[in-house]
Amino acid sequence: MAETFNPTRMELLKAKEKIKLARKGHKLLKQKRDALILEFFKILEKAKDLRGELNAQMKKAFESIAIAQAYHGSVEVEAAALAVQRAPTVEVSVRNIMGVKIPSIQAGGIKEKTLLERGYGAMSSSAKIDETAQAFEKALTMIALLAETENALKKLIKEIEKTKRRVNALEYVVIPRLTEQSRTILFRLDEIERESFFMLKMVKKKMARKKQN
Predict the structure, then answer these.
(1) 3-state secondary structure of 105
(2) What is the spatial distance between Cα 187 and Cα 191, in angstroms, rounded to a whole number?
């Protein structure tokens, strides 16, 4: 349904003000979209590097556990794993990127531990088990960091799509509609002015004829 409006000077001023605001909003949203895209690709590169590093670290960790199992046997390695006193803690905070709230994962409990912190005794273990524990601790830290970056990518791509839709709506719908409305009002005002001028001339002619008579 076509939008109705009064062809008045006030409506023309309102339409022009709306166009000005829409163009300003369009510019700001484009800047936001471009900044989000730039941030997305920066994090994407980071995620690619992390995934490659994690794959290499996981390979190293499984090689370490295979060596430990060959040296101690599966039962002893499993006993050392079960002796771990507590699971690592993960803290989640929120950081803001261009209005996008992204969880930041801090793997506080995932770090290189001492034998006492790990829980298994020095007499029942060896450097092979220590190396395996260290390798998996490092892998867990990298998993937490990768989870953060991949979650950030999902949040950013969603916000980029939403911002792009708003930019397109302003560029291809709102601004053209307001511009057309402004032109229509201006056209009608010009018509009214011409009609008024014509009527004024007609009235003057009639008054001139009456004076002559």
Answers:
(1) strand
(2) 6
What is the four-CA torsion angle of 58, 60, 66, 67, rounded to 10 degrees? Answer: -160
Paired tokens of 106:
């801090």
Helix and strand totals (H; E) in the chain: 5, 2
**Contact status, residue 106 vs residue 91, Cβ threshold 8 Å:** yes
- Digit-coded pLDDT (tens) for 61-109: 999 889 888 888 888 777 777 766 566 667 778 888 878 888 777 665 5
The answer to whether the beta carbons of residues 16 and 182 sit under 8 Å apart is yes
39, 43, 104, 156 from 47: Cα distances, Å = 12, 6, 14, 14
The answer to whether 105 touches 145, Cβ cutoff 8 Å, is yes
Cα–Cα distance list, 135 to 49, 58, 100, 179, 185 (Å): 18, 8, 34, 64, 73
- What domains appear along the chain, each with residue ranges and CATH number? 9-206 (1.10.287.3240)
How sure is the predictor about 143, in pLDDT bands with cuts at 50, 70 and 90? confident
CB 206 within 8 A of CB 54: no
pTM: 0.69
